[in-house]
Amino acid sequence: MHEVTTARIIYEADGLNMVAHLARPRGEGPWPAVLIGHDGVGLDDYQRSRADDLAAHGHIALAMDYHGGQTFFGRPDAMLARVMPLLADPGRMRAIGRAALDVLLSTPGVDADRLLALGYGAGGHVVLELARTGAPFQAIAVVHPSLPEPDARDWRDVNGTFLLCTGSEDPLCTPDQLLAFGRALQEAGVDWRVDIYGGAKHAFWARPTNPDGSPAEGLMHLEATVPGVGYHPKHTVRSWRAVLDLFAEDRGARRA
Question: What GO terms are given for molecular function (predicted)?
Fold first, then answer.
């Protein structure tokens, strides 16, 4: 494992000052690079910790921001008011994602030929929009993502490997939706796989917190959420292992 350094990165996108989290291994590299799109609630400690873990595994990781430094914990109506118009505007998602990707690619030590993506919820849709419009991701992992319409014509020029994850009890990103999207990828000739986690709900990685932000005991959220959200600690670990396996597989293939 590598020693990790982190930095707070501020950049402009969507008329806002975005506040991203950059994590990297010590050393010049070059290192494979990962762009991370956060869940609709906002960039939180979980996604920052995913960037840190990827850096420990030898990647430069940028956890983008698309809320201008805001988070919406306990404010589902405010979150939906921000996220739903964004999801309805693919061009806007691409512009937000491209701004973050440019920041990542301009980071010293990045190997632009080993580019990866990870997205949660609405952040999954952002990285998928980048992929289908030309971003050369070699591997893409999305966890309970918002999905574009499953049209094979959109993916025929995409060469990356896709990992699609959701919970069996997720009403916002159902297994059937992932399989329909996977069938479009299949028709387009794309390498893909689906992981479905039995008993898991939406945002199953999100641990409940107390009003002061400290971790809460149990599985039930104490703050208001959209319906269908629930914490599942076992599948949180399993889904992260699947992401690491995907990224390690891709890097190993490039070295062979």
Answer: hydrolase activity
Q: Return the number of other C-beta atoms located less than 10 Å from residue 226's C-beta.
A: 16
Tens of pLDDT, residues 141-173: 999 999 999 999 999 999 899 999 999 999 999
Q: Are 119 and 126 in contact (CB under 8 A)?
A: yes
Cα separation values, 155 from 13, 42, 251, Å? 26, 28, 22
Counting the structural domains of the chain, the total is 1
Q: Extract the tokens encoding 82.
A: 């921000």
Which position has the token pair 């921000």?
82
Q: State the residue for tokens 């996220």.
A: 83
Q: What is the CATH number of the domain that holds 32?
A: 3.40.50.1820
Q: pTM to 2 decimals? A: 0.95
| Alpha carbon 199 to its chain's center | 21
Query: Which of these, 37, 55, 218, 62, lies nearest to 125 by C-alpha position?
Result: 37
